[in-house]
Amino acid sequence: MRVRYFGRKGWTTAFIAAVACAAGPAAAQEEKLETIVVTGSRISYRDLLETPAVSITRPGDYLLLSLTLVSDTRNKESRENEIHETIRKMQASAGKSFQLVYGDTFLSTIDSKNYQIPLDDDDKRPDVSKVTIFVRTAIGGKPEKAEELTRELRDFVGKAERMGRTEIDVASETALSLTRPERFRYELVTAIAEDTARIRGQLGAGCEVSIEGLSSRIEWQRVSASELMLYIPYTMAIEHCGTGKPG
């Protein structure tokens, strides 16, 4: 599993999480899914200048909201039970509209059997346990619903039953996830080829146009509440215009 991190000044880091099927090595390799999770609100003009001319914009698959559950009950077993019970009740009330997931490099779905996920101790406060998870909802190819979906996510969390002394800290911004961004590779390559042919046609037959970098992995930036700009970091070179072909 390879983890790639992207980020520029003024832009929040994106991480790539691989979710592998556990049905055996062959099946796991065949059904391996690659999902990117991107935070931040939108691409800046400076970031845009650093991207190639050809890109495509696609809606994310899921809109996510990050939550940190914290309990400061004195007894460790009690506070862990409080957090886990809060998660269990949230998962039970999620229905078909929402899912709870967690993890840094591997995103795992929380269900009724695995809600007792590992918790962390707070380094600055003794007798405090915490964990960060996501609640997510499918965008369903309708980026115009992002604002409505964000309200629904926050309403769901706001209505969650807190057990004991559990508190829920909600992130100020949502995140986006996109499954298998490499599925858009040939769409991008086609767009780059069409752009190159158009440039060659405009400049004349004497110009030589070459492309490098098409073997690179797809990269991305968030351009709206629900959409990602996908691109391959290629470079174009134009030579010998007006000089005739080299002898």
Automatic annotation (TrEMBL):
InterPro entries registered for this protein in UniProt: TonB_box_CS
Keyword Signal: yes
Top-level taxon of origin: Bacteria
Keywords: Signal
Signal peptide limits: 1-28
Protein name per Swiss-Prot or TrEMBL: SIMPL domain-containing protein
